[in-house]
Amino acid sequence: GREEDEPTRRQVVKFTLYRVDPAWRSLPRQQREKAKGELCRAVESFGDRLLIRSYSLMGMRGDADFMLWQVGDRLEGIQELATAVFSTAMGPHLSVPYSYLAMTRRSIYVPSTSLRTGSPEEEGGPASHTVLSPGDAGYLFVYPFVKTRAWYKLSKDERQRMMDEHIGIGRKYPSVKLNTTYSYGLDDQEFVVAFETDEPADFLDLVMELRETEASSYTLSDTPIFSCIAMGLREAGFAVDATGDGQEGLWYAMGNDYDVIILDLMLPGMDGLEILKKLRAKDRQNPVLILTAKDTLQDRVTGLDLGADDHLVKPFEFSELLARLRALTRRRYQHKHPRIQIEDLRIDLTEQRVWRGRHELQLTPREYALLEYLAMRAGQTVSG
């Protein structure tokens, strides 16, 4: 049969933007930290059902504070997460000013071998892109999109001609990855577009250039626009040095005593395996976690033979990455179990909770991170 008739996996996609009641900030610190902890644990508990990315809008807009980008196979998973979020101690202090529901599907305007582009109606890649794979870019730009009725009265050939112009412009901006999802009949908009990039200026230039295309005159609505900043390891209490260049990564790794080193196999300049080989040749025994887009036996064997301690296949759940980092850190400091006991002080490394005797201590993320750092190194001299 024709390609468009072949069965494909379709996903449900949800962009939920939350606003925190300003009065919440006047609550006692311990109450706020407890509520935030409940919220984080509730979201992380869905890691086996949904792919979830979190973003901050603090300082970007006045009507939303953070966003959850959720991808799953069933509408029920999205609904269950929403229920869990509002059932936490944080729930009464949250509202949802914006919410966009969509699904993935193949684009009718480009062949399945197309490269990703900047077109709001082009999915940005092969047919397999009916399965979204959010990356680790630092920024995400999201907005709902509606075409005019006049657009749908045009012939398919006429629309394809206009879309070709869009596609050509999008290919000029390889630093911007587009994820197009479809909302016909599911929500008020027709599409939701989400652009991932590490270069906001490139996204700005792309949108400016798209405004001048013929197809742009058939846009009915493409607002509001949400500029989102990815939240990740730093917000989880880890101190992080990051680079996208292999040579620079080796320099960092040789010059610092990291608890864990994360290596991507596809780094430019010097690939992750070469960095690992050089580290072990210099007898640097820091735990190494390898990130790879391939999950073959040979890849795993090669990495482990060269001295890697663990590996993770992309795309992955952020909660799994955190769990693996915590496990490698415990292993390095000889804490095989996810709990540390020092006299009457008890630390649960998995839940990130602390007790002194029978009383649970309410710590800020920074305070907890400092306590865990010192507890991991009990008996050692630590300098700041």
Automatic annotation (TrEMBL):
GO molecular function, one term: metal ion binding
Residue ranges of domain Response regulatory in the record: 215-329
GO BP terms: phosphorelay signal transduction system; regulation of DNA-templated transcription
Record organism: marine sediment metagenome
Classification via Gene3D superfamilies: 6.10.250.690, Apc35880, domain 1, Winged helix-like DNA-binding domain superfamily/Winged helix DNA-binding domain
Keywords of this entry: DNA-binding, Heme, Iron, Metal-binding
PANTHER family per record: COPROHEME DECARBOXYLASE (PTHR36843:SF1), HEME-DEPENDENT PEROXIDASE YWFI-RELATED (PTHR36843)
Name under which the protein is recorded: Response regulatory domain-containing protein
Stretches of the chain forming a coiled coil according to its record: none
OmpR/PhoB-type domain sequence ranges: 337-384
